[in-house]
Write a structure and sequence with these properties.
Blueprint (H helix, E strand, L loop, with lengths): L17 E4 L2 H29 L6 H9 L7 H27 L7 H39 L5 H10 L1 H30 L2 E4 L5 E2 L2 H11 L8 E6 L3 H13 L6 E7 L3 E3 L4 H6 L8 E3 L8 E4 L1 E6 L4 E5 L1 H14 E6 L2 E6 L7 H12 L5 E3 L7 E5 L2 E4 L11 H5 L7 H26 L1
Helix pairs in contact: 1-3, 1-6, 2-3, 2-4, 4-5, 4-6
């Protein structure tokens, strides 16, 4: 597919703009799940037919049980279990083949159906025909003769040989039913919970390949569509909950753009901070990366500087870049005196200095004119426009103007607070131990 009206003329191939975020583990898991469901589905027609006609519908399971050497009363149960294990094994092979070859993208149901028909046909040719010919049919003759003593093995064999074409047609139908079930179930699970297709331009993920292609066509062309911009300020409980709801609601709506801004790049589970202070759990147990929540949304790690409600604009700055600009401001400007005249000379910064960081900011946040760099004096400040604003910035500890209480107490709002309390407790205990040792001496 050739992409037209893309901003960059080098963007001729849409596949180069899409990053597939999908793991082998999830691919195999979904296909195995589909295979287990398909194993049950493919037995339903025969079971229902045999049950309605009064035939012993458990004969197939007994045959499977006899194949693995179980001749007791549990042969039917063993046969059903080996049937599921076989289906799961086929699912693992099919899943690995699908992931490694990448011949079809099953995030589209039609592709899942095509892949299911293809897989069912291959399984019938490679697996079902030899298994039926050399294992199941001979065992079927023995088992049928044992269940119905009125028939000899020779009579049963002649009957099966005369109906062999019907047996293989029936097997083909059942394997195609199995494959189609695997393909459709895998496609559904992949769309619902599986593959993410990330746009390399704006780092936004979609669950369906057709949606991200539509996103590239309409959002990243020379005249992009007008999107509704939602800005969420704060990455705590409220911000993440709103983000989750919005992403679920507008997952396939490319007209909506969602941005999460937080001063920290992690979500902190504050109710367990006291356990970090006591050393019962590690800090990583209460901190989760915010980018893991931002699938359909952008994430910006910055501190909010100001909010212009009238013009619907937010100014923010990254703390690291702010500190770097503040630290290099005195180095890039020097004063020289020449011929009794004071002149101010500004040296060009090297490539790996602040200009490089400034350029990176422009590239990261200037998609479709969404943000603008404030070039007045604070080079590190950026702005973003919004249509809808969600304020979820949390709260600060309030001492109500009591400076003595503020100076003599610890707060419990961040990981730094938890570390401070833990360090203070350890330091106090160490001092007590030293004091007791000196007192004994």
């Amino acid at each position: 597919m050739v992409q037209r009206n893309i901003k960059n003329p080098n963007f001729q191939n849409v596949s180069n703009l899409i990053k597939i975020d999908f793991s082998l583990k999830r691919e195999v898991l979904y296909v195995v799940t589909g295979a287990l469901i398909g194993a049950i589905t493919m037995t339903l027609p025969r079971t229902i037919y045999e049950f309605l006609t009064g035939l012993p519908y458990y004969t197939s399971w007994i045959i499977f049980g006899h194949v693995i050497g179980v001749y007791s009363s549990d042969a039917a149960i063993a046969g059903f279990i080996i049937h599921l294990i076989t289906a799961a094994s086929i699912g693992i092979v099919v899943g690995i083949f699908l992931y490694k070859t990448n011949i079809l993208n099953i995030s589209k149901p039609i592709n899942g159906l095509i892949y299911g028909i293809f897989a069912g046909t291959i399984i019938f040719v490679v697996w079902a025909i030899p298994i039926n010919e050399f294992i199941l049919i001979p065992e079927n003759i023995k088992t049928t003769a044992d269940i119905n003593p009125t028939f000899t093995q020779q009579e049963v064999s002649q009957n099966i040989q005369s109906n062999k074409s019907n047996i293989f047609l029936n097997s083909l139908f059942l394997n195609l039913l199995f494959g189609i079930t695997v393909g459709l179930v895998s496609s559904f699970l992949s769309i619902k919970f599986g593959a993410r297709y990330k746009c390399k331009i704006c780092n936004v993920s979609f669950s369906r390949i057709d949606i991200i292609r539509k996103h590239l066509q309409l959002v990243h062309r020379r005249e992009p569509i007008l999107q509704k911009k939602i800005a969420i300020l704060g990455g705590g409980f409220a911000g993440v909950e709103v983000l989750t709801k919005l992403q679920k609601e507008f997952q396939n709506d490319i007209r909506v753009d969602i941005t999460l801004i937080s001063k920290d790049n992690y979500f902190l589970f504050t109710p367990m901070l006291h356990e970090v202070s006591s050393g019962m759990i590690e800090p990583r147990h209460v901190a989760s990366p915010l980018r893991a929540f931002c699938k359909r949304a952008r994430f910006i790690e910055s501190e909010i500087k100001s909010i212009d409600l009238e013009n619907r604009k937010i100014d923010f700055a990254n703390q690291v870049l702010e500190a770097r600009f503040a630290g290099t401001q005195n180095n890039i400007t020097k004063k020289y005196e020449h011929n009794k005249t004071s002149r101010l000379l500004t040296y060009n910064m090297p490539l790996n200095s602040s200009n490089r960081f400034n350029e990176n900011i422009r590239n990261d946040y200037n998609d479709n004119n969404r943000s603008n760099i404030n070039t007045n004096n604070n080079h590190y400040i950026k702005s973003i426009d919004y249509d809808y604003l969600v304020l979820a910035l949390g709260s600060n500890t309030n001492f109500f103007g009591n400076k003595n209480l503020e100076n003599a107490s610890f707060t419990m709002k961040s990981l730094y607070d938890a570390f401070s309390i833990r360090s203070h407790i350890i330091d106090t205990l160490e001092q007590i131990c030293c004091y007791l040792k000196k007192k004994k001496l």
